[in-house]
Amino acid sequence: MPWTNTNDRKLRARAEQVIPGGMYGHQSTFLLPDEFPQFFRRAQGARIWDADGNEYIDYMCAYGPNLLGYAHPEVDAAAAAQQRLGDTMTGPSPFMVEFAEALVGMVTHADWAMFCKNGTDATGMAAMVARAHTGRRKIVMATGAYHGAAAWCTPLPSGTLPDDRAHHIFHTYNDIDSLDAAVAAAGDDLAAIFVTPLKHDAFVDQEMPDPAYARHCRDLCDAHGALLVVDDVRAGFRLARDCSWSVVGVEPDLSTWGKLIANGYPISALLGADKARAAASSIYVTGSFWFAAVPMAAGVKTLEILRTTDYLERIEGLGRTLRAGLQEQATAHGFTLRQTGPVQMPQILFADDPDFRKGFGWTLEAMKRGVYLHPWHNMFLCAALTEDDVRQTLSRTDDAFAALKKRGNDLPSTDRLQMILGPH
Ligand code: PMP
């Protein structure tokens, strides 16, 4: 069936009438090539189907929540069993305790867990716990890092006040001198150092954490009595069956989780060490849906699968094959790719592409051939992907490189994206 987007266009036109801008947040229409589908009807395993029935091998995993494969039979069965009993009830189900025990059992630094809905809830709670624990205000974080979309951390300033970030001090990820300077600027008012486990910012190359930088974050927090927070919302359980900084031998005081901990069911978590337990029990945080039972049942099953299968080794192996194949193809077609970060969370940018038009062109050509890639955000591999899927992907990306070459300068516009990004 040839690729079409008639239904998507109709839905977009209707959305324009009843949804501000037609769409918002990371699905905003200008963030991707114009023809990328906005609406999807179905997802199964490593595949998604858009509103026109086009099928894609999906390398976005819903921006992270899919790890084991969409509609995973065991996770869905656990969720369905609880669904029949009750979901949002007057209080949580026993699964809440089981889920907290399972997380605390897997994540070395964690002695307790609190549940919420989105990653932004968890990062906001981490900031509150750090401030409650220390009685101080300043939070040191890395320039360009994404910690969510509340007023204190959303990347665009519209609707926020300078006061919302008055107590943030920025440094450069992996740069010990700039970290020292930021901590010095906090003086005796440092509540926390907030870091992502690797630099996985949009629009730029990813960077693995320098172990010396990670250790320095730990040492500074200890020296100043501040809390170290690792924001594992995106990378959690994709690098380790533990907090992602276990790989560099550094244990934080708090870590934030979300996206995949229930393989797509809506739930996120703040995990913490005993040190921060009293502060965590002193803050008032909650939400109407935070105690829903179905996501917790799904989460317990998800963690069991993470502990007992080779999902991590599989996505690493497939990621290596994909990276090597793309490298070879790009060279053969005369393009230079910058592939960075963990192979299972690949960031793929074109060298000499400051306006992202080559990236838009290539991902558009791949999308029309049934491979859903992203031009400037890190992608994700899921454990339902097979070697055959990667072979099919590479055959289609090869054609997409050839089509990109043929387009020459006839590349999709990124003007609206440029307006938001400013000089980059
Ligand atoms: N922190 C990080 C590192 C993230 O990647 C994200 C989401 N992309 C968030 C926080 C916010 O999570 P959510 O979108 O679930 O609020």
- Residue share in helix: 25-40%
N- to C-terminal separation? 39 Å
Rg from alpha-carbon coordinates? 22 Å
Number of strands: 13
Strand order of the largest sheet: 4-10-9-8-7-5-6
CATH superfamily of the largest domain: Type I PLP-dependent aspartate aminotransferase-like (Major domain)
**Mean pLDDT metric:** 97
CATH topology of the largest domain: Aspartate Aminotransferase, domain 2
Key features of this structure:
424 residues; Aspartate Aminotransferase, domain 1; Aspartate Aminotransferase, domain 2; seven-stranded mixed beta sheet; 12 helices; binds 4'-deoxy-4'-aminopyridoxal-5'-phosphate
Written account of the structure:
With 424 residues, the protein is α/β, with parallel strands linked by helices. The protein folds into two domains: 6-70 and 311-421, Aspartate Aminotransferase, domain 1; 88-291, Aspartate Aminotransferase, domain 2 (3-Layer(aba) Sandwich), CATH 3.40.640. 38% of the residues lie in helices and 13% in strands. The protein has twelve helices and 13 strands. Strands 4-10-9-8-7-5-6 form a seven-stranded mixed sheet, with helices on both faces. A four-stranded mixed sheet has the order 1-2-3-13. Strands 11-12 form a two-stranded antiparallel ribbon. A hairpin with a 4-residue loop joins strand 2 and strand 3. The model has no long low-confidence stretch (mean pLDDT 97).
Sequence-ordered SSE layout with sheet pairings:
Blueprint (H helix, E strand, L loop, with lengths): L5 H13 L21 E5 L2 E4 L4 E4 L14 H13 L9 H12 L5 E5 L2 H16 L3 E5 L25 E4 L4 H11 L3 E6 L15 H14 L2 E5 L22 E4 L10 E5 L4 H6 L10 H16 L2 H22 L4 E4 L6 E4 L6 H12 L2 E2 L14 H21 L7 H7 L3
Parallel strand pairs: 3-13, 5-6, 5-7, 7-8, 8-9
Antiparallel strand pairs: 1-2, 2-3, 4-10, 9-10, 11-12
Helix pairs in contact: 2-8, 3-8, 5-6, 9-11, 10-11
The chain binds 4'-deoxy-4'-aminopyridoxal-5'-phosphate (PMP).
4'-deoxy-4'-aminopyridoxal-5'-phosphate binds next to helix 4.
